[in-house]
Design a protein that fits this description.
Helix content: 55-70%
Strand content: 5-15%
Shape: flat
Strand order of the largest sheet: 1-4
Distance between the termini: 8 Å
Structural class: mainly alpha
């Protein structure tokens, strides 16, 4: 069956959620407590070890198939407007995000800012100032450029993830 990358990732999320739910159900029903004198069979939850194991194995296989297809897709497709595969783009976007956060902090600094005195309860007449050791205007321009590049990268990746398809047989 054909899936876009976006659809395949949603399928993978669904399979992982099914697996997590089955593990949680197994955790709750594979053992149980009965009070002294209580009829054990009346409180025994429904649980079949073999069926649960088989179901988990089937889900694990489907997850491997889907992840493999997504990984292959990510390695084989180049993102339009960038000389990068999807795989590289998935590294590039977090790098841009971190750079944007750093530049955001730098651009919001004042050129000269009074520093809080850390005198541990003593009276101190010395006032310290923290100075920006860079041109804030240049950082603001770089911040805008990184913001634009991040938006362009995310949009290009979104377009590819929602248009190109891959074949997944599960």
């Amino acid at each position: 069956m054909k899936y876009t990358s976006s659809e395949a990732n949603k399928l993978l999320r669904k399979l992982n959620e099914e697996r997590d739910a089955l593990l949680e159900k197994e955790h709750r029903s594979s053992t149980f407590l009965a009070a002294m004198g209580e009829e054990v069979e009346s409180v025994r939850p429904e649980y079949d070890y073999k069926d649960t194991l088989r179901a988990l194995d089937e889900l694990d296989e489907k997850i491997r198939i889907v992840k493999h297809a997504i990984n292959g897709f990510n390695l084989q497709h180049t993102v339009s407007g960038f000389a990068m595969s999807i795989d590289q783009m998935l590294v590039y976007i977090p790098q841009l995000t971190a750079k944007k956060q750093k530049l955001g902090q730098m651009k919001n600094r004042l050129p000269k800012q009074r520093e809080a005195a850390n005198t541990f309860g003593r009276n101190n007449n010395i006032i310290d100032y923290r100075y920006a050791n860079y041109d804030i205007k240049t950082v603001e321009e770089d911040y805008m450029a990184v913001t634009d590049e991040l938006a362009r990268a995310q949009t290009a990746l979104d377009v590819l993830n929602n248009t190109e398809t891959m074949e997944i047989e599960i």
